[in-house]
């Protein structure tokens, strides 16, 4: 006992200095994360205790009676312990404050009531004990539900409730769209398919059926037209006088800006769409075609219908690639490569060969092949390839997006493998001895966007042919600037 | 005996209350986890990155796949006039010589303008260039040929109208001293792929360092290993790098090994990351004895390269620094920061007049920065290297009237509401102009971008989320953009 007391004393003594540190914040959260693990103990114990309490009133279950106080005590202790780690967890922030308040205090009540019930039971005040126990169980249900809401969101329980049941339970039915999903821009109804989804996504959490800040609701036509406490928010055809537009265009540090600071602001394109909608008399039923969208607006809408896709290679979106075996990566490093992950939590790697270490031979190639699916950027700049090299095996690196072969010893007859690189976007061949013969290989790469041929042996005619065959391909051939008087390109 | 007493005394000095408390807590918490992990040199930082304490510059994976692997930042210290280079305002020409209307002066503070200044039209003629039709004045004849590779941000704005605070805001995210510079943040977040060279190199030309001093490449509260290493384009590239007289490289190696061993023991005792910084700097200095002279020697570049950049080996110049920047980029240096001083065109003297010194500055940078862009491009490096050019703020559409007097030379005062920067390469849309100023270039009226937005965008292009790149200091996580910064999505390709 004495030992524990000392421990507590030191803990208190040390805590002010320690509580400020980053380590302590992390430690709190570390313990806090045990909350979901612990909470189910008191739930189980107390519920079982309550069942036993009820059942033990019947003669055949009377033997259970003796177990109830024990279960109550431990249920209560675990409840308080869960509350403590729960409090630690809450220091991480990010929870809805109202719900958290009730969850916290009801949770503490569960434990306190249970322990009080235990004490009273021990003093043979059976009746009072029973009612306290019942309160504890009631608190337990509510706390548990609120806890679920905190973690999964308020509508978690009812989101997939059948509509008919929802009607009976009086739960509002969500019919409006949250995201702009357009199949056909022309046929889209501007308000229903575009404007309301924006409002639902960005405004309705405060201006909807749950909260009505400023007595304004933006979740349906009637409410939008009704306006808020300061009157109309929408003056059809008059963008400047429409409060709805004015407030979303205020500078971000302005007190009245909507959405308020801390909430997700509207995208610039979303503001443009709302502006155009209001300027067009804020129609609630016309389609985009009827409204004759100007090009700027049409382009924005078209982007929703046909997203232009990520500007990075689609390779990065692949989810079925396993991270490379660390053993293979270290073998790669032993073979003279430097390996860098492309990004955190990405299986893909960038690999650079360091010529200084050793010439590039089949051993290097073998090491590369072991991580063939993971290599997306390969830098073989300045590499001297061994004569016997089976370089066509580079084709196994099927996810290559960028390949640097500049200033390397690569020859035309070694280049056929690039045709099999179905994702290759960037190919650097400057300073190599490749000639026009390489161009047919380049043409065969469907994804190729940028190729570098400065100081190679490719002829201007060849480049012209390549450009006409692949018009979208950017070909860099070297300096054309007037300042370069003696560049090798000019001489040739 | 005395030595023994002294040693005991030293020991007591080191055993402070804080040590006592720390030992208590780690004992009671029974979580020696931190120190256990620290012990084997691997630490997981606040961003969830596994850091090797012994290799602070080791390359780290970015948050997401980056567009740019490195950055060359060409900072024009003193701030060039956007109205004489990129932001063409014919309306302002019509107002030239007229009194500035009071509406533009109400509630404004200027560094030097007093009373009612006169409006000042563009001093040089402009023309549209390239397929993008970008406006560039006749001061930049070379650069006007490459505008199709460049994105102009014309409605940049800042919060500070004096050089030092504005430079600090641009480079460190805060107007006061003490924050880490952008290069420090980037090397802290990403490390470097070439540990034989510094990850963050600073090259200075124009005669002097920027007004804010070396703090613009300082590491602030980050470990000092992340501060910029200034290299000189004349003389020894890095001062005090060569072996002292009478000491050969082998002896040097042995002494560094001995010093590092002692430092390693000290680190194991106290766990101060600065000790690791010192160790790695000794090691890097030793490696740099070989790698830096090679990287910094431009004399072996072919003649056409020298002609293209306008370089003269052995001279300290912006042109030399541009060529060095390309060489460092080829060698995978992460952050290459150039400063060129002398753009503060007030008109208070010939050297800082729009009609004299400004012309010289333009000549000094035009050919070299153009050559840098072209040279990176043909080598296939521009695709993965971000180049940024600009000053710390802009200049007024009014002519400066220091002391309320008309001055002999023509100049403009500091202006924080509008200035132009350009970016190229590394994931930036080429051939676009983003942002617009009003008819006289006084305010940004469309697509304004704050310097924090620029910082957020630079970090994004390098594969980092500016809100996630944080460092715990004085009880809260800090970041380059502090609590500000929005990604400028429209300029990202």
From TrEMBL, chain A:
Residues 1-19 form the signal peptide. Residues 203-262 form the Cytochrome C Planctomycete-type domain. It comes from the Bacteria. The chain crosses the membrane at residues 35-55, 67-89, 101-120, 129-148. Residues 34-151 form the DUF2231 domain. This is C-type cytochrome domain-containing protein. Keywords: Membrane, Signal, Transmembrane, Transmembrane helix.
TrEMBL record, chain B:
Pfam families: DUF1501 (PF07394). This is DUF1501 domain-containing protein. It comes from the Bacteria. PANTHER family: BLL7424 PROTEIN (PTHR43737), DUF1501 DOMAIN-CONTAINING PROTEIN (PTHR43737:SF1).
